[in-house]
Amino acid sequence: MHSDLRHRRKVARTALPAAVLLLMGSAVVVQSSAPAAAAETTLRAAAAKAGLFFGVAASPNRLYPIVGQEFSQLTPENDMKPDRIATSSGGLQNTSGADTLVNHAQSNNMLVRGHTLVWHSQAGALQGASQATLNTFIGNAINRWGSRIAYWDVVNEALEDNNTGRRRNQWPHTMNRDANGDGDFFDAGDTDVMRDSFIRAKQVVQAGGLTTKLCINDYDVDGLTVQGGTPNRKANALYDIVRNYRQYIDCVGFQAHFNDNPNSIITDDLQANIQRFADLGVEVHITELDIDDDLSNNDIGAGQAENYRKVVRACLNVAQCTGITVWGISDSESWRSSERGLLFTGGNGSYQKKAAYHAVLDELNKGRNPTTPPTTPPVTPSVPPTTPPVDPTTPPPPTTPPPPTTPPATGCSATVSLNSWTGGFVATVRVTAGTAPISGWSVQLTLPSGATVTNAWNANRSGSSGTVQFSNVSYNGSVNAGQSTEFGFQGVGTATGLTPVCSAG
Ligand code: 9MR
Question: If you measure from the C-alpha of residue 68 to the centroid of ligand 1, how many angstroms do you get, rounded to a whole number?
Fold first, then answer.
């Protein structure tokens, strides 16, 4: 983009919401018969109240106080990439930067997103490695930090640019083979580096009893369409991958670098696209958000602050959109500083909030909006549904979950895994049928006092605090003997020591 063509929009500072102004006055006492919801004054607190994390990409030399104050999740911007930490044989090296970031996150009660294991770029010594070496690296990296990493980007940016909907054609995707020539890599005889990497990652997570969730991450996959209403083929391709490999993939990252590229704009169907992934049962995250401040060709065209509001709202409106991460703190320190795409100006630990910051905070403070559920989008995958892959070249991961709390005979058992941050949590519950198939299930859990469920997916729910009951929905009640299904819920407060009790029928 030519800087002389850029028309720098003068962004009027948005008025602070009345509730925020009230809170800023130290002597204000709110007396009202109808208790007003107090607005939170940091991004992390407002997000926690709404039931999601709000994170930032970070580097060890920029761990200023603002990181722990405003954000509840941290993604190493560069320190966990293969070019930093991988040896050519899949071992680890130079992990001190990553260690610093993980420790910082832990001492500030922040979740960590590991970024990233399998990527064509910044591959360093792994460039050209075999699947076996990639698998070694995957095992070493996941095991080094274990459950201290809540989410790992296992596969990053696997799809081509320019909305072709195809896989990339450079390493590691050069290992892919379409054995039967049907145009996809989903068949049992095909080779797919994505599938095999996820299988390996899942094996490592299960063998270690880790709570780490495994994600696929990409850019230009945000809307159902791109500029001009053209179908977003890249998003459709990602959707097909997640649907086919759902058994190994727990979460999807929309990078959300919004700029003037016609495939990188904010479209009005962003929420619908988030929703269709959520409907597959995965968590969705906005993982690398920045928005060019003179985004001129988007479908919204309302200025950076309003564009931020739109993206945050799209996530809030989908229960399984459980986190938003901005790709840096301030414009001047951003990898795309010329776009001024972040929430703060300033630098070196001294930051000023932009209008976009106030818009995001305000939107988060409004919370999720259950009274206007998102419309279910038309699902138009680019290939017809296929059965999940069987007999992949790498043996499938063990399907045995951690020891059930109630030993299954017939009936069912349930286990729970938690991702928690200060003020909130996401729980994933795995329901496993015993020695006979079941045609329906219910799971009862008792939450500690102070914990409240805000939303749930893949289950009906009754109750939100104390003893809460979940039961199957239409599509996941039938579970074959020894097989499992998962549902999830999200809440505020702290949920520890959950003991799920499963009943079949
Ligand atoms: O922000 C990162 C920048 O410091 C690096 O120089 C760059 C090198 O590729 O990677 C940037 O982060 C990328 C992220 O890892 C994946 N999505 C796109 C980000 C911007 O390229």
Answer: 22
The domain total for the chain is: 2
Asked if residue 160 and residue 292 are part of one domain, the reply reads yes
Give residue 67's pLDDT: 98
Least confident of 1-15, 79-93, 185-199, 329-343: 1-15
Amino acid at the residue 71: F
What residues contact 127, with CB distance under 8 A and at least 6 apart?
A: 171
Domain annotation covers residue 329:
yes
288 is catalytic: yes
Specify the pLDDT at position 485. Answer: 79
Of 366, 394, 429, the one marking the end of a domain is: 366
Residue with tokens 């030399």: 61
Please list the residues that pair with 100 across neighbouring strands. Answer: none
Domain that holds residue 419: 412-504
For residue 308, give the nearest of 340, 336, 335, 337 by alpha carbon.
340
Catalytic residue from among 77, 283, 288, 486: 288
Assigned domain for 356 exists: yes
Q: Considering the entire predicted model, what is its pTM? A: 0.72
Q: Which tens digit of pLDDT belongs to each residue from 226-250?
A: 999 999 999 999 999 999 999 999 9
Same domain, 354 and 417: no
Over range 250-261, report the average pLDDT. Answer: 96
Hey, whose CA ends up nearest to atom 13 of ligand 1?
Answer: 77
DSSP-derived secondary structure letter, 248: T
Indicate the residue among 366, 397, 425 that finishes a domain: 366
